[in-house]
Amino acid sequence: MSHDRDQEMVIDEEAVIDELVVEQFQGELLHGAPVSGSAEQRCVHPGRDSYADVVAILRAEGFWMCSDLLCVDYLGYGAPRNLPVGIDAERFEVVVNLLDPTARERIRVRVQVPESDPQVDTISDLHPGMINPEREGYDMFGIFFAGNPDPSRILMPDDWEGHPLRKDYDLGRIPVQFKAPPSAR
Asked: What are the pLDDT digits (tens) for 41-58?
């Protein structure tokens, strides 16, 4: 069997598993938010207005460890995004991974963020370790986290214009010299 054929089988297997996971959670609500699945993991999809409240409830239920917060720009992305019925795909998405160490469970929170108003509430009051990932989300994608105690840039200079990880950001070019130029002999 060729490598390409093996790759196709793996992709087909993953697609079948994702379809089964979607069917497993279809129609389920968790704290008023629709649930989907991805790689056998529950994903809850609250609206921007209920995002921080859902994270607070999940924390009270044992999901007190926030392992990651990241932002995604889906500009030009054509593949299905595995969103439950009733959730409209937006250009940006904030993804938070929460863990319940006692029950050994994981849940993903996915919030759709529109390009016209890229803003969500902070969860840094619940998870202080998320102050800097939220700052990075603002710096790189332009998603503002309302209520973050330090909303300044973290990676780029303060006077930098734009957000470099947006898909429509002009790449430009900065010349970099890695070694000394050859000397004239």
From this structure: 899 999 999 999 999 999
Average pLDDT for 51-79 = 97
At 129 the three-state DSSP class reads helix
Q: Would you mind telling me the total number of residues written for the chain in this entry?
A: 185
Spans of all domains in the chain: 3-129
Q: What is the DSSP string of the chain?
A: --HHHHHHHHHHHHHHHHHHHHHHHTT-EETTEEEEEETTEEEE---TTTHHHHHHHHHHTT--EEEEEEEEE-TT--S---PPTT----SEEEEEEEEETTTTEEEEEEEEE-TTS-EEE--TTT-GGGHHHHHHHHHHH--EEET-S--S-SSS-TT--S-TTSTTS---------SPPPPP-
Query: What CATH homologous superfamily does 3-129 map to?
Result: NADH:ubiquinone oxidoreductase Nqo5 subunit (3.30.460.80)
- Global pTM reads 0.79
